[in-house]
Amino acid sequence: MGTVISIILAAVLTNNFITVKTYGICPFLGVSKKTQSAVGMGIAVTIVMALAVLITYPVYEYIMVAFDANGNEIYNFQFLEIIFFIFIIASLVQMLEKIIQKISPSLYNTMGIYLPLITTNCAVLGVTELVIGDMSQFLNGATMNLGWAVLYALFAGLGFTLVMIIMSGMRERLNYYKTPKALAGFPTAMITASFICMAFMVFTYITI
Amino acid sequence: MNKYKRITLDGLIFQNPTLMLVLGTCPTLGLISSASSAAGMGLTVVLILTLSNMIISALKKVIPNEVRIPCYIVVIATLVTFARMLLEKFVPDLYDSLGGFLALIVVNCIILGRAEAFANKHTVLESAVDGIANGLGFTCALTVMGIVCEFLGSGSIFGLHIMNFSIGIFATPAGSFIIYGLSIALFVYIINLFEQNKRVKVNKLARENLLDKEAA
Q: Is the pTM of this model over 0.80?
């Protein structure tokens, strides 16, 4: 139980992907003008992140390296992880797009337009790279396994969605105010984002 | 020669990928709190961008149009894997300071963007020049912001201690966001001023020509 809480808090608040790790900034700045599209993008990213880790983690741990009965390596091509991961993510996104188009056209209309953008989203490749690295600080003493990896990815995606929603709400309000001409557009968005980051810095005081 | 000058100026200033087009934001925001890691990231991107532009431009007749994006990604991912191995072996300090952002060069929009917008339509030499120009544009922007951010955040530049002074916020992503936003605003303002001056000059010249003609 301690591990579950520790992973959830770390993924959503203390190590939030946008405000602390600065992964996935392109959709964060590009698709946060309206709350509706921000929610759609956030949910799409969350699903792809969880599914991507569900596939890449076993591939990395069990397929890309093999041991014989004495524990000696038979082969090991884990150094090719980037190529494998990006290929898995690209095909996963393509597949999801086709499945959603077939099953629910209405969902496709609201979410499908964000799917092609997700392949080149740092957050997805970032989470698959993170979970194969050193995760001991979030695990509260437990050993890493597939379950923890997927849990981390899922809640990291939800943390991403949370910040997207906060940002889109603030940007919708900002439309009613006049900004100096030079600051219009990206600079205003970045300064807004900086205030969200400052707010999230409070959570770094949480210790588990 | 004029063609190469225009490509270079576009990449460095008028179409600067970081400040004018706002691409590749993740490594920018993640690394500008330290000038040396920002410069290291920039130079790695110069190398990978130039090579990927050249390879993609050389292969543009071979790659089928329908599956071009996966092909580009495989080329880029291979180059990033090489770069990662080289950095880990020869520059372990930089490898550690770049952290996860080294692998994320694969999904850096600048590299895929240049492949899609430039390299698949131009010759190998033009693509190489474009890669170097855009890479240096990215590097310069990152280094300048890195110097400002590191000085404000810890009172040092490139790790060299200068004075006992620090504003903690600039060592975190919040400060990086502020510096990046203000840099974009300043850069766009200067470019607009420059282009306005150019327009005024051209108009003035045209008016004088007209007056000369009328006088004649």
A: yes
